[in-house]
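Let us work through a complete example step by step.
Step 1: write down the sequence.
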Amino acid sequence: MSVPIRVFLADDQHLVRAGFRMLLESQPDLQVVGEAADGADAVRQLARTAADVVLMDVRMPVLDGIAATRQIRDAAQLGDGAAGTDGDRPRVLVLTTFDLDEYAFAAIRAGASGFLLKDAPPEDLLAAVRTVHAGDAVVAPSTTRRLLSHLAAIPEQPAPPSGAGDPRLAPLTDREREVLVRMGEGLSNSEIASALFLSETTVKTHIGRVFAKLGLRDRVQAVILAYETGLVRP
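Step 2: predict the structure and record it as tokens.
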């Protein structure tokens, strides 16, 4: 039997945590290993509690979800404590009430692997936990496009059309740039393959090269960069 995915819950509402716990523990491959009512307690517990995925509420007392996410991800990257024993755990999935929530966007930039609305269907939450654990990011095309279109950081000087002059994009080939554009538009690998007449395997190869060349952690960072550089416009 495979080892279950260890999930930690951080939310200031007891009933919300109880609901998530019931849902998660109804699945044989998921296990809740702890919970906290504020971000500071979550950071403290995760320093000694091994977890794979954190469900992180954005608005919490003492320490909000943005600051908590940044501290947890920094500790994981440094390999500090139980949470970071393999150098990249736990991954953080931000929970937000509104799909145009600037706090959720800030948490993603702080290192979260994606975001999900609290009123999402149960099957979406379960799928998101598994997706994040597998190392991918949760980038729902509809809500992500609206969020980033509204909130993507705007450079001090307007970006050239299609990001042509942004030095961050210089390492990319024309094909890799096309793939980044499609990611920024919220397309899945299969949709990118169809749009560019490529195989999914080839698309995955291009995405890997984009990540490596630009120093990106995951798809969320790729989407943000596509907006910041002007490669994709709202």
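Step 3: interpret the result. The mean pLDDT is 81.
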